[in-house]
Amino acid sequence: MPKLKILFLCTGNSCRSQMAEGWAKRLRSDVLEAYSAGIEKHGLNPHAVKVMAEAGVDISRQHSKTPAELDSIQFDYVVTVCSHANDHCPIFPGKAKVRHVGFDDPPQLAKGLPDGEQKLSIYRRVRDEIRKFVESLPTALSSPN
């Protein structure tokens, strides 16, 4: 059976979608071919890279991209991981089903906090929530929104 092609879509493809792609490649590569993109490119968030590395997942070689850069791929599912991406999700040709599974925005929640444990704890919480969702794939995708 071919692997399901899944795109994790966020606003800037810097944090949540990157973490989801990393987890999917690490935990579900037996059944999923995972990608991530953003409505815009914001670069890779260094705090996301750090907390994923703490969990044993290296996302440092991933890069921020837009869906247009992946237009040759026919996705089975597009999972929006933030409400902005859900509200502004582009149309994907073919059979792609769009599902929204929102996660808190670590950069927004950590805004104004000094670098350190307090800030990283926010990123860790969201990282762990994303992991739990990814562990439920692909079953979680088959249920309607």
Quickly list its features.
single chain, 145 residues, alpha/beta, 4-stranded parallel beta sheet, 5 helices, 4 strands, 34% helix, globular
Structure description:
The chain is an alpha/beta fold and 145 residues long. It is 34% helix and 15% strand. It is built from 5 helices and 4 strands; from the N terminus they run βαβαβαβαα. The protein has helices spanning 16-27, 46-54, 83-87, 106-109, 117-135; strands at residues 4-10, 32-38, 77-80, 97-100. It has a 4-stranded parallel sheet. β1 (4-10), α1 and β2 (32-38) form a beta-alpha-beta unit. α1 packs across α5 and α2 packs across α5. 38% of the residues are buried.
Rounded to the nearest angstrom, the radius of gyration is: 14 Å
Number of strands: 4
Helical coverage, percent range:
25-40%
Q: pLDDT average, as an integer?
A: 91
Question: SSE order in H/E notation?
Answer: EHEHEHEHH
Terminal Cα separation, in Å? 25 Å
